[in-house]
Amino acid sequence: MDQGMSSPPAQVGTLEVALAHAARLLASDPKLAAEQAAEILASVPNHPAASLTLASARRLMGDIASALGILEPLARAQPNSAATHLELGLALGAARRGESAVAALRRAVQLKPDLPDAWRLLGDHLMLMGDVAGADAAYARHIRHSTRDPRLLEPAAALCDGRLAVAESGLREHLLQHPTDVAAIRMLAEVGARLGRYGDAQLLLERCLELAPGFAAARHNYAVVLLREGKTGPALAEIDRLLADEPRNAGYRNLKAAILTRTGDFGGSIELFAGVLAEYPHQARVWLSYGHALKSAGKQEESIAAYRRAIALEPRLGEAYWSLANLKTFRFTAAELAAMERQLAREDLADPDRFHFDFALGKALEDLAQYEASFRRYAAGNALRRAGISYDADENHANLQRARALFTRQFFEERADHGATAIDPIFIVGLPRAGSTLLEQILSSHSQVEGTMELPDIIGLARELGGRRRRSDETRYPEVLAGLTADECRELGERYLGQTRIQRRSKAPYFIDKMPNNFAHVGLIHLALPKAKIIDARRHPLGCCFSGFKQHFARGQNFTYALDDLGRYYADYVRLMAHFDTVLPGRIHRVIYERMVENTEVEVRRLLDYCGLPFEPGCLRFHENERAVRTASSEQVRQPIYREGVDQWRHYESWLDPLKQALGPALDVWSDTQQL
Fold first, then answer.
1. Quick check: 187 and 140 in contact, CB under 8 A?
2. Pairing state between β 588-592 and 449-451
3. pTM over 0.70
4. Residue-range domain boundaries for the chain
5. What Cα–Cα distance (Å) separates residue 580 from each residue in 232, 350, 544?
6. 303-317, pLDDT tens digit by residue?
7. What Å distances lie between residue 637 and 171, 296, 406, 440, 626, CA to CA?
8. Would you identify the CATH topology of the domain 423-467+478-675?
């Protein structure tokens, strides 16, 4: 009897030792771990821990089907095992069953909230599904639960709860005593990123990676911050470094797709999105992103199909309807119009969806010549969008006044030897919807010119020079330019050229940067790149401004959501350009959109002469150019010269009085800025 009673404990002890040994082998030798787990299961069939170890080993060996064959019934039998659901989430992710992986990971963290790896994986999957807010929350939980230092628990909890001021204060106090604590440095960088202080976040993460080069989570954060700052080349290098170690990591692949989109590599981004959709076939926002990439690559029918797939999956997704409208050449069916009206009647419709529906319906009603109803929709969408953004017309006016005060003829004469000698950039500046995409399409149809779209790099340099960390801070820009040496100006030019090299796909000697807002930085461009060409794309103020009013921009252009803001912005723009015409005579070539439409060949020849390029007939057949185009005019510039849009604003003129008043003298002398 005593011998019989003593036997089970001995067997249990032996079993526990064997299980522990098999589990330890997972990281170093999953094949041997699988063999040992199988031996245990031969003696103790269906043992949960042994089954879990065997499944983990099979997954690590790449046998995902076998792992799932063990895990799915095990999860049903062990519904309260967090470890089982975590492993199931890993296997489902490897099998490209992303939505099922999310469900398993959610169950894992519900059962055991202090699983940092589960939170990180959940964040990766949610990011791929387009749930940015959910992903951010999951990543915050990952940070909190990966922190073991009791001194960091309160700041981590504050970060997780969104109490950023509390988190920042606690972390800074901690780092005064422990300046090399990489976990704390990473958390403080996350606070900075949440507050939009990306420069601070970048410096913190660089310090973090200097201290701990293998800190993968910090490197991922670093790549995200670099992307948000428009530093696509460094961001791509960082994400490729992470993917070398974890090629199937969902978050890393998603971030690379976003980076490739920003660099204009739409072939690469399309391929990645197609892979994502194999894992997440029911995610509307992934279909939406896929549609954007297809549209930019000129695959219109495929983009329409992708947008409609997004709508089928999520009928209240207003952005998908607006994306269809934003093709400009697309026409909604009567059924689609009715569907939009039904969604707008919902009381629970989120504001972003609502204003996207407003803009989409505005375009649809305009196509039906129902101009009053169309204007009401445009006005409603703009009012809702304006209420949610920060834009100060007085601040913009003051900033451009400072530029006019600084940049005198004498200022530039004294710095005639400043800047890099490169001749390859061609800047197209002005306002959105002024014909800049048409000019880019014409020029990029020349054998010596490559179109690289709207690049954020000049604005990024200006922001860096300004040294502004918070919106309330005073900026040193543009006055800081007065103190730059010739070498420093040259270095700025070379930095710009280095940063933009990733955008270039051909060996053409010239490339185009068509960021319209660069008009505010003509002084910086001239100092850093004095031989670069600068083209001012200009359109009738009522046509240009109202076209901007009809447009919902994915990001930036916050001045476009009120008619008076638009009028003041346009007036300030033409006033600044008139100033540069005076202090840098002949430096800027102006193209009036209406003249380009009426006398295309004459204006094209003038444009090429200014750029020092020989005439090529292909520039008149620009609509045959199959290059990728990311802007709202992407489909219009794939057609012969677009005359229909010149006077469309006249249908709405009776409602444009606030715009006319804000324009002031610019309304009458906009094409002859010497009079301003």
1. no
2. unpaired
3. yes
4. 423-467+478-675
5. 31, 44, 21
6. 999 999 999 999 999
7. 52, 12, 38, 9, 10
8. Rossmann fold (3.40.50)
